[in-house]
Amino acid sequence: MVKSGLFHADPYAGTALLSLFGRNGCIDELVCAFEEIPQNLVTWNTVISLFGNYGFAEDAMFLFRELMWTGAGLSECSFVGVLSGFASDRTRLGIGEQIHDCICLAEKMFETRCVRDVVSWNTMIGALAKSKRPSQALELFLKMPVEGVVPNETTFVSVINSWTSLQILGFGEFIHAKVIRNKIESNVFVGSALVGFYAKCDKLESAHRCFEEIDEKNVVFWNALILGYSNKCFSAISLLKRMLQFGYRPNEFSFSAALKSSLVFDLQQLHCLIMRTGYQQNEFVSSALVTSYGKNGIISDALIFDAASNKPLLLVPCNTIAGVYNKTGQYQKTEDLFSLLEEPDIVSWNILIAACSRNGDYKEVFELFKHMQTAKICSDNLTFVSLLSVCTKLCNLSLGSSVHGFIITTDFKLCDTFICNVLIDMYGKCGCIESSLVIFNKMIDRNIITWTALISALGINGYANEALNLFREMESLGFKPDGIAFIAVFSACRLGGLVKEGMDLF
Hints:
Layout: H1 6-9, H2 11-23, H3 27-36, H4 41-53, H5 57-70, H6 76-88, H7 95-112, H8 118-130, H9 134-143, H10 153-164, H11 169-181, H12 188-200, H13 204-213, H14 219-231, H15 237-245, H16 252-259, H17 264-276, H18 283-295, H19 299-308, H20 315-327, H21 331-340, H22 346-358, H23 362-374, H24 381-394, H25 397-410, H26 417-429, H27 433-442, H28 448-460, H29 464-476, H30 483-496, H31 499-504
Helix pairs in contact: 2-3, 2-4, 3-4, 4-5, 4-6, 5-6, 6-7, 6-8, 7-8, 8-9, 8-10, 9-10, 10-11, 10-12, 11-12, 12-13, 12-14, 13-14, 14-15, 14-16, 16-18, 17-18, 18-19, 18-20, 20-21, 20-22, 21-22, 22-23, 22-24, 23-24, 24-25, 24-26, 26-27, 26-28, 27-28, 28-29, 28-30, 29-30
């Protein structure tokens, strides 16, 4: 292409080359080629889409902004490309706001278009679905007939998928009725989306009916049904066998789904099948296999199989095994596994730190945290929960306050409900009830654990009446007390001498 002059003269040839590099994961070559070829809207959209699909959300957004500055204009493909990156990377700081801005731009463009065909509608509905806005996606879907646009298979797939995560059965059934009315229930993609929806809603009979209506089944269909059975704790091995009988080859998702609910006998059969089909060294399957062995109490068998493979333990299975060791009190084995990893990730560090915390090696916990920072591994909520639990056990208010300050300076958004609950408990047990109250009053999203933590904190600090009043307020707001909440309020009554008030709670 370079010799013939097409590379620098023909943007279409250059765009084809960009797609080739992108499909093969050659990101560096992709960037170099993009900088050299003539650029138009198609080339920009191609690169934005490729970066988005690979999960480079910030890079995709940067290119999206650059495209806006060039004055080349924006198209639906521009928005779809950048939104695909957001869909796979929603945990990064600021991503939510960027999605909102991008969606607002897309909506304005959509509203000002004179001609809006089904492709435009599908693009907008798909963008809203990817940004986790199912209500708006459904609202647009319902406007289509009013505007004289007939939804197609792609429309229904986007709407169904947007509501699957919410698992609201009524809306799914409503869309299913629309699918039947449009006579596309036998479409492979629509049928697959319906099977996945009903399976996640635990409506296995409905999922099975949708499954049987499809003539041209594929592996995705089978996987959705297998996962549905596994989530309901039904053995899925019979479905896996039936899948093989019909000539479909299971993939890593098939095995991982089936392993979720496998008992010992089924597990051993599945393990043999995994080895015969060559998925023994697949990280996804190995992790599910080890987890299943751990749930059945035979983790030693998984280690024997792994040792027989004469290959290094993969990261995810190693973390899974370490987690099982940690939960069963085998802390030294947790540390031994960690030492075998060349590049431990945040999960590996969190498991080891939690193991040291449970084992009472409190000094080692903070030493590991320092090493983790040196290794440039970003801490997450689980890291700070382990650190704060050590502060609580030591009743070290100064250390706990330092960890709290570090969380705020690192990333204030880490102070979610989970962390705030732990902070309320820590400050309460360290005797600083004022800080517990400040955190509680600032919280917007409280759960039963939040209320219980503060009730317990008030009780152990001598505020029995306040603890009792808080318990009653919690009930009045519709929170149903669990056993731990009752223990907390009874303890407060006992410590404060409120015997009659405690008896009245029965």
